[in-house]
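[stage:ingest] chain + small molecule (alpha-D-glucopyranuronic acid)
[stage:ingest] validated
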Amino acid sequence: MENVLLGKKALNFILLLFSLLIFVNAQPKGYIYEESKVVNYSLPDPLICNDGKKVGSKNFWNEKRRNEILQLFKDEVYGNSPQKLIRTEFEVIEKETVALGGNATRRQVVIKVSNANRSLDINLLIYSPNGMKFPVPAFLTINFHGNHTVSSDPEIKITQSWVRNRNGIKNNRAREMDRGISSSRWSINQVIESGYAFATFYYGDVDPDFHDGFKNGAHGLFETEIRTKRKDTDWGSIAAWAWGLSRCMDYIHEDSLFDHKQIAIMGHSRLGKTALWAGAIDERFALIISNNSGCGGAALSRRRFGETVKRINTSFPHWFCENYKKYNANEEKCPVDQHMLISLAAPRPVYIASAEGDLWADPKGEFLSAIGAEPVYKLFGYGLGVTEQPSVNEPVHGRIGYHIRTGKHDVTEYDWEQYLKFADKHFE
Ligand code: GCU
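[stage:predict] done
[stage:export] tokens:
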């Protein structure tokens, strides 16, 4: 018996070593993955104004400091999105009251945004729970590969927008055969069963994710302005995707299906960065969820753990504004760090989710951002509820929510269970 037990232990140990090896190799080389290698850094204080005044009340925060931080993020990190009001039209192009086995009603809406002779279509897919009293709260999400990939529902329109050439796609066109390929990331049935509507759109509808000098997508829509040269403070792609979330919110506000005061936004990875920025610039979003958002999202840049500012600006030169490149290997000179992005969500509930195997996104740095944002939440009488990073799979659901789960960079059923509990708790 003892031998069997020892054998089992040895096998578990070998398996653990093996998975550690795979996991270490999955991270790009030459970056920091050990806490002992993190440089000394000090964070800018979200409660000290540019003129040195200390914020002591929520009113002072709302009237002065919040705007200062928001403007710093616009000018130095994500870029300024156009303020111009342009024409937005909505058309419900399809509706089916017996969807998802009868539990939901499906709607597909085209949000047409026009400026002069240019226009852009955002396709919003909505499932709402049947047999519920309306209006309902909702999760508005942004997806990576097209609405047709979030569920195998054969009626979902296939995107006509540019898609990445991957898994055998060669011509940047979406395929019938990819229906449902990302469905494991979207617990749509659980969302519906919990009494929420689920809405999603494809990020490529708003801005194709490659660097074309900001000609296509939402940037192209504003090309007609009398501006020939982009400014260093102009918006990048993350700001464009966030702008797309706001255009979907414009539609949601017109539709009596939704409880307009209870709309949560959620995004994963680069789209988790997007959700955080959208929540900062558009206060209509009542709850904000960042899943494994990492560098330029929830993780503190000054730690230089995993992905760095230099690396992200080099691999993805179109995501941020030009000014952000000033902070390549120079993070400490940036007047903001990402805890201040989280603080812009206050006093609304915000959730930061990390994964143990996602060192590239710096789970600890994501947690420390939540800690760094807490003084702002405290002005409103709210907090995170812990001072140390919780153990894996031990979520905390204060006004700032946080968990680190086992597993890799991904969105899982476990993540969605937490988001639903968190929304149930904070959307009373
Ligand atoms: C890359 C990038 C990350 C990003 C991720 C994603 O790994 O370095 O910053 O979050 O892609 O969006 O999937």
